Model the fold of this input.
Amino acid sequence: MMPLLNTATAAARRAGDMALRYADRIEQLTVRSKSPNELVTEVDEAAERIIMEHIRTGYPDHAFLGEEGGASGSGDYEWIIDPLDGTTNYIHRFPVFCVSLALRRRGELQLGVIYDPMRQEMFTCTRGGGARMNERRIRASRQETLAGSLIGTGFPYRRNLQWVDVYMRMLRQVMRHTSGVRRPGAAALDLAYVAAGRLDGFWEFGLKPWDIAAGALLIEEAGGWISGLEPDTDCMETGHVLAGTPKVYAELRKLFDKNFG
Done:
């Protein structure tokens, strides 16, 4: 697995560092709208090409599922790519964005990489091999209760506006029971922060597989829990995510389940 992980980290670093070089020249970039509240820049597209070309050099038979390019190829191995998670932040020079890569083998996640070029932080994991940040082992926090916990979230928008009322009830519940809520705007990085113990929990509606995949395995390998937000669902299938330390996750689950019925 290490050669695959080394390939993934090198690809993520190349893409992220390229994005960083353009971060102070946003006005020179072409920005277009894929749909309401969903923007894409030429940096997103170039970063995805960089990642795919680098991986194909060593693994020409692997398949890809990318945010910009969609699905291509077939086979046992599939790379799930978000070349620039947090594009809206990036366009506005808000310094929270990342590159996210995961590898599935026959449908099971095998490795994940999330790279934050602003902070030069590389989060990595392999199935059964633990989670790391810049080669240092990371673990989910030891927080055991909602009281005192810091929870991350993302707002529902685009095609998920039907969840706004449910989300607002959840937000009020979390605000009443925790020490704080944060919404930085890059879900993959939020999930990495749960794995690293910087956030004690996280929830969001309407994510895509490339937002979730790497962070999901990071959290599992760091000792946290992640699932679908609705009871008995898989976040990779629904896009609705609940994650946290085991006990914070359980308390959030108990708090949130009353919103579904």
Notes: The longest strand covers residues 77-85. The chain is about 35% helix and 30% strand.
